Protein backbone atom coordinates (compact mmCIF):
# COMPACT_ATOMS: atom_id res chain seq x y z
CA UNK A 1 0.00 0.00 0.00
CA UNK A 2 1.21 3.48 -0.76
CA UNK A 3 2.00 5.37 2.43
CA UNK A 4 1.04 8.61 0.68
CA UNK A 5 -2.54 7.39 0.24
CA UNK A 6 -3.70 6.34 3.71
CA UNK A 7 -7.03 4.60 4.05
CA UNK A 8 -10.06 6.67 4.78
CA UNK A 9 -13.19 5.61 6.56
CA UNK A 10 -16.65 6.60 5.48
CA UNK A 11 -20.16 5.33 5.30
CA UNK A 12 -22.99 4.59 2.92
CA UNK A 13 -26.59 5.25 3.83
CA UNK A 14 -28.97 2.62 2.49
CA UNK A 15 -32.58 1.96 3.44
CA UNK A 16 -32.26 4.23 6.47
CA UNK A 17 -29.20 2.44 7.85
CA UNK A 18 -25.61 3.68 7.82
CA UNK A 19 -22.95 1.13 6.82
CA UNK A 20 -19.21 1.60 7.29
CA UNK A 21 -16.90 1.75 4.28
CA UNK A 22 -13.17 2.00 3.93
CA UNK A 23 -11.20 3.37 0.99
CA UNK A 24 -7.56 2.50 0.44
CA UNK A 25 -5.04 1.96 -2.32
CA UNK A 26 -3.75 -1.50 -3.19
CA UNK A 27 -1.13 -2.72 -5.66
CA UNK A 28 -2.48 -4.79 -8.56
CA UNK A 29 -0.05 -5.92 -11.24
CA UNK A 30 2.39 -3.22 -10.17
CA UNK A 31 -0.16 -0.42 -10.40
CA UNK A 32 -1.90 1.44 -7.62
CA UNK A 33 -5.65 0.94 -7.51
CA UNK A 34 -7.94 2.90 -5.17
CA UNK A 35 -10.74 0.69 -3.85
CA UNK A 36 -13.72 0.90 -1.52
CA UNK A 37 -14.65 -1.98 0.76
CA UNK A 38 -17.60 -2.48 3.08
CA UNK A 39 -18.83 -5.04 5.55
CA UNK A 40 -20.94 -8.05 4.66
CA UNK A 41 -23.87 -6.40 6.43
CA UNK A 42 -24.14 -3.94 3.54
CA UNK A 43 -23.86 -6.74 1.01
CA UNK A 44 -26.75 -8.59 2.67
CA UNK A 45 -28.91 -5.46 2.68
CA UNK A 46 -28.16 -4.74 -0.98
CA UNK A 47 -28.85 -8.31 -2.10
CA UNK A 48 -32.11 -8.36 -0.17
CA UNK A 49 -33.30 -5.19 -1.87
CA UNK A 50 -32.72 -5.81 -5.55
CA UNK A 51 -33.37 -2.13 -6.24
CA UNK A 52 -31.57 -0.01 -8.82
CA UNK A 53 -29.99 2.01 -6.01
CA UNK A 54 -28.69 -1.21 -4.45
CA UNK A 55 -27.08 -2.20 -7.75
CA UNK A 56 -25.41 1.18 -8.12
CA UNK A 57 -23.99 1.02 -4.59
CA UNK A 58 -22.79 -2.56 -5.14
CA UNK A 59 -20.98 -1.52 -8.33
CA UNK A 60 -18.82 0.85 -6.27
CA UNK A 61 -17.72 -1.74 -3.71
CA UNK A 62 -14.58 -3.74 -4.55
CA UNK A 63 -14.98 -6.33 -1.80
CA UNK A 64 -17.18 -7.13 1.19
CA UNK A 65 -15.37 -7.97 4.42
CA UNK A 66 -16.30 -9.62 7.68
CA UNK A 67 -16.28 -7.29 10.68
CA UNK A 68 -12.99 -8.85 11.80
CA UNK A 69 -11.37 -8.30 8.37
CA UNK A 70 -12.64 -4.71 8.27
CA UNK A 71 -10.62 -4.00 11.44
CA UNK A 72 -7.34 -5.44 10.14
CA UNK A 73 -4.24 -3.23 9.96
CA UNK A 74 -3.78 -1.44 6.64
CA UNK A 75 -0.86 -3.54 5.37
CA UNK A 76 -2.60 -6.84 6.15
CA UNK A 77 -5.85 -5.70 4.56
CA UNK A 78 -4.08 -4.41 1.45
CA UNK A 79 -2.33 -7.78 0.99
CA UNK A 80 -5.61 -9.66 1.44
CA UNK A 81 -7.43 -7.46 -1.05
CA UNK A 82 -4.67 -7.45 -3.67
CA UNK A 83 -5.06 -11.25 -3.83
CA UNK A 84 -8.86 -11.06 -4.15
Structure report:
This protein has 84 residues and is α+β, with helices and mostly antiparallel strands. It has one domain. The protein has helices at 40-49, 52-59, 67-70, 74-82; strands at residues 8-14, 17-28, 31-39, 63-65. It has a 4-stranded mixed β-sheet with strand order 1-2-3-4. Strand 2 (17-28) and strand 3 form a beta hairpin. Helix 1 (40-49) packs antiparallel against helix 2 (52-59). The radius of gyration is 13 Å and the shape is globular. The two termini are 15 Å apart.
Quickly describe the structure.
The chain is an alpha+beta fold and 84 residues long.
Mean pLDDT: 88
Q: Which percent range describes the beta-strand content?
A: 35-45%
Query: Helix tally?
Result: 4
Structure class:
alpha+beta
Element string (H = helix, E = strand): EEEHHEHH
Through-space gap between termini:
15 Å
Largest sheet: 4 strands, mixed
What level of helicity do the residues show? 25-40%
Please name the defining characteristics of this protein.
84 residues; alpha+beta; four-stranded mixed β-sheet; 4 helices
Topology:
Layout: E1 8-14, E2 17-28, E3 31-39, H1 40-49, H2 52-59, E4 63-65, H3 67-70, H4 74-82
Parallel strand pairs: 3-4
Antiparallel strand pairs: 1-2, 2-3
Helix pairs in contact: 1-2
